Amino acid sequence: MSAGDPLLVETLTRMLEEHCTPEVVERAERGEWPKALWDTLEAAGLPLAWVSETQGGAGASLADGFGIVRVAARYAAPVPLAETLLAGWTLSKSGMDALPGPLCAAPTRSDGAPELNSTGRLSGVLRGVPFASRARALVLVARRDDSAAMAMLELDADRRRDRVEHGSSLAGEPLDDVYLDDLIPDAIADLPEDFDLAQRRMGAALRAQQIAGALEAALEQSLGYAGDRSQFGRPIARFQAVQHNLAMLAGEAAAAGAAADAAASAIARFGAADERAFRAVAAAKIRTGEAAGSGAAIAHQVHGAIGFTREYSLQHRTRRLWSWRDDFGPEAEWADELGRRVAAAGADRLWSDLSAD
Description:
Layout: H1 6-19, H2 22-29, H3 35-43, H4 62-74, H5 81-93, E1 103-106, E2 115-116, E3 122-123, E4 125-130, E5 137-144, E6 147-154, H6 157-163, E7 164-165, E8 175-179, E9 187-190, H7 195-228, E10 230-231, E11 234-235, H8 240-270, H9 275-303, H10 314-324, H11 331-345, H12 347-355
Parallel strand pairs: 1-5
Antiparallel strand pairs: 2-3, 4-8, 5-6, 6-9, 7-8, 10-11
């Protein structure tokens, strides 16, 4: 499945070309909220694409949502678009209406699930929540006895001051710790059994699409630079070593895109809680994580010293690649879980599982 309706992709691309320039990304990293960019995305209904129209969203398909974040990643959009999509999806699954404004979703770490006790109070610490210090609300999945529950916390100025410890990711975006000690949420709703696993897979699939989009942009930027930069009287793209590197980068970008699309397709067909979706998402998280590391290194090698300078926008993509690969579990964590499941299923199941539709 190729993520996203072509018309939607084209429209979003035009929006980002106008409102998400390298200067906007740089100012966001210095702490300036990109209001014009967010307002444009919100006016188009994109952050709540996965919320039904009856719940106040756009009612778009899963493919469209995955396509939105992939395009946004090409431009290194410094807003919580993927996070708001995931939070809106979680709200909709709990039967709640959408909330306007930027949202954040948690947990993003496998050891970060908070506990919701019998009196309706949350306890725990959420580490590394993207954009918590910028979000209107936090939507999280908590454990309640043996089931999952959705809890929503509105993050007003007082809660941000008292509960949110600000930090930054490698990309210079907010990556915050949220303290929930004995906190009463603003809303609670029951969720299907094992929804926490489904939410983690959705988050991982979103990050896989973002990595694929950033790699596509890094490839395009590398091709343009190699064609324009001359050495010894000819473009460096004509040197065999550079051609080899560009071919390797194209291969990494293509592999990441194919793996991300396979995960999106499996979720759309079987649902995020299905075992087939787990295998596709795990493979995507592993492959895109590997591609993020090797692809960023190749792109910087093609660019030489200029690729590491603050003034050149390649680093907007590569620093996000390094940051995104750890969200919702690094590739080693997914590889370990996938390996254990394959081993438990036994050798007789391996081929049938690999070749299943």
